[in-house]
Amino acid sequence: QVQLVESGGGAVQAGGSLRLSCAASGRIFSINAMGWYRQAPGKQREPVAVITNSGTTNYADSVKGRFTISRDNAKNTVYLQMNSLKPEDTAVYYCTLQGRLTAFVSWYDYWGQGTQVTVSS
After folding, report:
1. CB 6 within 8 A of CB 115
2. How many CA atoms lie within 13 A of 64 on its CB side?
3. pLDDT score for 76
4. pLDDT digit string (tens) for 98-119?
């Protein structure tokens, strides 16, 4: 079973920064992508940032220019550097990994437990 362990969440003032990390463990044949989603109360879970195995990144318009996703392939770890945080960034942030445990099967999405990010004004 693939497990994702997150850290780095917390409470900050508007304009501050946080760095989230997510380390994947378990038997993984290959990783197609890793990323971050977030969910605010009463809202749908939405993608924030994704990085593929080739290094291509994609960001939600709401965070573009403020957040940076990066990856350490040797550690199977993904990071989310969040700068210029706004109150509307307040949400539970979830790490996700799209991978497979063997070749020639469909990709499967794994999820972390989530970590709270609270931005106050």
Report:
1. yes
2. 6
3. 87
4. 999 888 999 999 999 999 999 9
